[in-house]
Write a structure and sequence with these properties.
about 150 residues, alpha+beta, DNA Primase, Chain A, globular, binds zinc ion, nucleotidyltransferase
């Protein structure tokens, strides 16, 4: 599993618009000054208690005190873990956020060579091929090339 860096999480919280996210999920936002209000999806609400503040990219409900960032929003509305929420946002929304800037996309190549995954014995009895002398010989050859 890919590691979630603080940088990525920070980017998502800053660059993924909570307003866009909420509208994309079909919620109805009403402008209220520099903020937006909507009926809170986290409690029975018919008075639009939930306020989204685009300048902070945060939401806060005055009815049930639900509050947080885009990541918290996805965790609560989708019922997923923090990691899952970050991955959903990265996959669905971060490409859009990146395109809205003027910076050219730079795909950074990972210069660290990938380590082959360590061999793990299968749970079922080992096939005959693994016990064959050729198998260990091939393995020795393989190790030679790595030196
Ligand atoms: Zn609420």
């Amino acid at each position: 599993m890919a590691r979630l860096s603080d940088q990525l999480i920070g980017r998502i919280k800053q660059e993924v618009s909570l307003v866009q996210l909420v509208e994309a999920k079909g919620f109805n936002l009403k402008p209220h000054g520099s903020d937006y209000v909507m009926c809170c999806p986290f409690h029975e609400d018919d008075t639009a208690s939930l306020v989204i503040t685009p300048s902070k990219n945060l939401y806060h409900c005055f009815g049930c005190e639900a509050a947080g960032s885009v990541v918290d929003w996805v965790m609560k509305t989708e019922g997923v873990s923090f990691r899952h929420a970050v991955e959903l946002l990265r996959n669905e929304f971060l490409p859009l956020a990146a395109e809205s800037t003027d910076q050219p996309k730079v795909i950074k190549q990972n210069s660290t060579p990938k380590l082959s995954t360590p061999f793990t014995a299968p749970a079922h009895p080992a096939p005959a091929a693994l016990a064959h002398p050729c198998a260990s010989a091939a393995n020795a050859d393989h190790q030679e090339t790595l030196k």
